[in-house]
Amino acid sequence: MGERIVIVGGVAAGPKTACRAKRLMPDAEITIVDQDSLISYGGCGIPYYVSGDVADEDELRKTSFHMTRNEDFFLRAKGVKVRTLTRALAINRKNKVLEVENVISGAKDTIPYDKLVITTGSQPFVLPIPGAELPGVYTISDLHKAIAIKKQLASGQIGRAVIIGGGAIGLEMAEAFADLWGAETSVIEFMPQLLPRIIDPWFSTMLEKHMESMGVKIYTGEGASEIIADENGKACKVVTPNRTIDTDIVIMATGVRPRSQLAAEAGLLVSQFGIVVNDRLQTSDPNIYAAGDCIEVTHMVSGQKFMAPLGSLANREGRIVGDNLAGIPSTYPGAMGSFIMKAFERCIGATGLSLESARAAGFDADAAITAPSDRAHFFPTEAKIPLQMVFDRRTRRVLGVQGFGPMNDAVLARIDAAAALIAKNGTIDDFSLCEMAYAPPFATALDALNAAANVADNMQMNRQRNVSIPTFMAWMEDMSCQPDWRALDIRHPNEVGAFVAKYDDKWLPLVYSDIRAQYSKLPKDKTLIIICDAGTRSYEIQIFLDSVGLGNTLVLGGGFNVITRLEPQWWPNK
Amino acid sequence: MGERIVIVGGVAAGPKTACRAKRLMPDAEITIVDQDSLISYGGCGIPYYVSGDVADEDELRKTSFHMTRNEDFFLRAKGVKVRTLTRALAINRKNKVLEVENVISGAKDTIPYDKLVITTGSQPFVLPIPGAELPGVYTISDLHKAIAIKKQLASGQIGRAVIIGGGAIGLEMAEAFADLWGAETSVIEFMPQLLPRIIDPWFSTMLEKHMESMGVKIYTGEGASEIIADENGKACKVVTPNRTIDTDIVIMATGVRPRSQLAAEAGLLVSQFGIVVNDRLQTSDPNIYAAGDCIEVTHMVSGQKFMAPLGSLANREGRIVGDNLAGIPSTYPGAMGSFIMKAFERCIGATGLSLESARAAGFDADAAITAPSDRAHFFPTEAKIPLQMVFDRRTRRVLGVQGFGPMNDAVLARIDAAAALIAKNGTIDDFSLCEMAYAPPFATALDALNAAANVADNMQMNRQRNVSIPTFMAWMEDMSCQPDWRALDIRHPNEVGAFVAKYDDKWLPLVYSDIRAQYSKLPKDKTLIIICDAGTRSYEIQIFLDSVGLGNTLVLGGGFNVITRLEPQWWPNK
Question: Which of A174, B312, B413, B563 would bridge A413 by S-S if both were Cys, CB 3.0 to 4.6 A apart?
Fold first, then answer.
């Protein structure tokens, strides 16, 4: 008889561990226990099931070859035993048994193990506010809740929705309600921006503006303080310090916490980020492994511990546990939180550290912002994809990349390539030379990612000096507060007119190709903010003006391709 | 006065060198000479200009901000002098002058230099066959020829086209003729496959079948032996050993050769692959640099010298020469030929070495073939993207990746990430763990590229044993030639029926999930080829059968997702 492996938790990391271990050790006796009746589903697909993109919840439980991943499937196809509706009560490490109880009958039982794997995942964090537990308030934590939400949508009960939490799940749910079902949808985010920490504010604002243009109301910097019930006891209003919003449903998407209680109670080492594991994903008991949302992960860039509740990581980690159970010494290098999400007709993605996170982690970090074309500018489907590259000024190491673009795989390509290089401690030079595949329908000769690296190079070598986007935005808002600044707008006269009309002599138009001939017209006693479409020409002009003694200039990185995405009213043709 | 820099060649590497150098050294005196009247155009865009995707040839000469890159633009905007219609005759290295002649007037002149840069590009190779020089035979080498071709198309003179050469340019031109203009288009390729050397035959055949399904006639393994003229002396027939094809135009797309004559005549070191340079792109004369199609490049994977005539590389190389001219010691690590192309509704891409090239370069190379989903299988736009990962069995280093998929950026994302990792000597393990961004609209939880690496891992660890695709195809063609083989088809009975009907008892259907219960039915004295959709389940079954003593099995890597793309008649629903 083979080794007895017991796995607690059957959604992502658990089944992956089980199947990999069984393939490596065909005679192992593997049992998965899960307190739910539904296992091994694509939890990340819930927003698309709710929206209707995925017709049936069963599709989230099916393999790519159309078999439903239920107990019978695991037993027959994989040789893995699954006990659903079975709650793990305690780990008896001395006797190496797992104590369990049937959640329906209450019957208790013990399961002996040689090796135990904890893949208990995460649980949604519920804001401790009045009304949080009312009927009509849902977390997006399991398929049952998703089924209940969709039933209400399908029967026309939801005309209005409030999402508490502007992270990825909250925003995906907002799209699900607003897009196909036409619900009047509001998102409330306590932090001053959407996607806090993983995306810097000037990027998340581009997403916010797009979602608003699609009809979603977004209130950032505003926490929900209470949920109020109607006469039937069902949630009907969400209260913030600034407003009260009527609603038919409330989605609580305020993050998750590791489900690490079972491990902690068994005396295993647990931190605020989850179960502590070594790089072979062993807990402090060498006979017990852990993987998925419930473990503490090392950030590959900062070296800091964090929680990384991503389905993609759960699968990688499960495979590594499977290897180690079978004696293959695979190690887990940690994670960097590669991330991408769809929002209506746009997508946003990131990998590594944001500028804010990088500085918080102690790096001498700066950010190169560009707005390059995703493919040849003469190709019909070309679009701009604002990119940001966060780098360390001391070492030239690239710490993170963010991108925003149309809803296709153009941003994905740059994020994936960046993740690959960052994992290998890639520097600005590695990114500058990275040989992205080129043909006009797919990229530019110097790819967008190479271009971002070249901007970072120019900044790190102190050839390019920037004004920050928030500073420039504040200045556009109130021109008088920065009396010594002037905008030097080098774009085509057609693009510049509206700004000159509004800002008068504070906005100096001088076409890019005329500057070498006419720079003597420019004021010497003002700070000139050089403005173009993408920031590239502004840098050229900065260098030229430096060479003729006009050194008091700053480049607006990303140029108006970024500004118009932050302040759509600035789009001149609108 | 600043340094005098003279650059010979004004298409891609030359202008890039000039502009970068001028930015780094604003007081440098930079002159570009080019024998053509048109400079700095996007040569890779020619097929899209011919097709009509790009309306006007001027668009290929414009910047992203709509200025035409002509002599006036370079002088006014960049501070770089351009002398068009000026042919470089000789380099007088002793006196450091370039001897030139005006191609219209014949007037001769000399241009003194402190540093010279040779960016003379490549010239099309013209097959030495009778009729190759006839009117109506075009190479795709400059914008003038493209304009002439499009004029004929637009005036309805081209109903039939023959392309000699099945490389990327030939195939892009074939699409241009066939798609928008509806010309009856034939491609002749001397080698037995399209895209020889850069793509392995089972991948290029997928492309070939798709192009055929769009109406392009493709003849591989068939060289053009003669081009015949009509009574007006214009090319009207292309002759091969097997056929004579009537045509209104002939495109000669049989590769390019480095334009290194100027360098060679000046006594600089030149190889068959181009001008020899060091890693700072200096020629054998330290005052002379070279970049672009005309230089010999080191392959980053094989270490071998080769020619890499790609616009993307020309731009990278130009930037490095610019740096070095300005005293910044940037180095060029070489290239790996990252490549992608559109063909109607599909795309194909590659980076690094093909299996054939890897073996030729002395690696103990093998290839993992998969056919994973590009995004969550439950997401509506999901498609399969066959991927191949070439790896070294000895070191686990990944040597190359190829992909084929629908016409979007899904293949691009995997090729770009692969290129990034291969450049850093990435191993199978790096690829397995590479943290590709995940959300259901963009990827699968374990990304397609991770999945390919996991197959490579299983193969390298000798857990997975494959039958090669050519072997299996030959066997399907003539079942009798391999009497001891049986197909064990574990797909859904709906998918299997047609094969059982055709192959009778040679084709054994047994559903994946029934194998653990029913394996005893399987013959023990035959080689079983295990067949599923993507190869993944077949591997699982192989492992299981090994464990029960049925060790004589082989997996069909990539499964029927690959086979149906190679032999469309096998698509069961067709």
Answer: B413
All residues of chain A having their beta carbon less than 8 Å from the beta carbon of residue B426 are 420, 424
In a domain, B574, yes or no: no
Q: Do B45 and A378 touch (CB under 8 A)?
A: yes
* Statement to judge: residues B91 and B34 lie in one domain: yes
Number of H-type helices and E-type strands within chain A = 17, 32
A289 Cβ contact partners less than 8 Å away, ≥ 6 residues apart: A17, A115, A116, A117, A118, A277, A280, A281, A282, A283, A321, A324, A325
Same domain, A15 and A105: yes
Phi-psi map region of A385: left, alpha, beta (phi>0 left; psi -120 to 50 alpha): beta
Query: Which of A312, A342, A445 is the closest to B311 by Cβ?
Result: A445
Closest CA to A78 of B531, B514, B453: B514
Q: Is B190 among the domain residues?
A: yes
Q: pTM for the whole thing? A: 0.97
The nearest CA of chain A is from the CA of B131 a distance in Å of 31
| pLDDT, tens only, A319-353 | 999 999 999 999 999 999 999 999 999 999 999 99
Q: Is residue A446 part of a domain?
A: yes
Task: Give the tens place of pLDDT for each residue, A51-91.
Answer: 988 988 888 988 888 889 999 999 999 999 999 999 999 99
Residues A236 and A262 both lie in one domain: no
Closest partner residue to A378 among B42, B341, B377, by Cβ?
Answer: B42
Do the chains contact at A409 and B407, CB–CB below 8 Å?
A: no
Distance from CA of B176 to the nearest CA of A (A): 13
Q: What is the mean pLDDT of chain A?
A: 95
A48–B440 CB contact, under 8 Å? yes
Residues A350 and A394 in one domain: yes
Say what the ipTM of the complex is: 0.96
DSSP 3-state of B559: helix
Q: Considering the domain boundaries, does residue B507 fall inside one? A: yes
CB-CB under 8 Å, B437 with A349: yes
pLDDT digits (tens, 9 = 90+) for B402-434: 999 999 999 999 999 999 999 999 999 999 999
Render A236-253 in DSSP notation, one character per residue: EEEE-SS-EEE-SEEEE-
Q: Domain span at residue B26?
A: 4-122+257-325
CB-CB neighbors (< 8 A) of B59 in chain A: 378
Q: Are residues B421 and B391 in the same domain?
A: yes
Does B547 contact A313 at a Cβ distance shorter than 8 Å?
Answer: no
CATH code where residue B45 lies: 3.50.50.60
Please indicate, yes or no, whether residues B452 and B488 belong to a single structural domain of this protein.
no
Domains held by chain A: number? 4
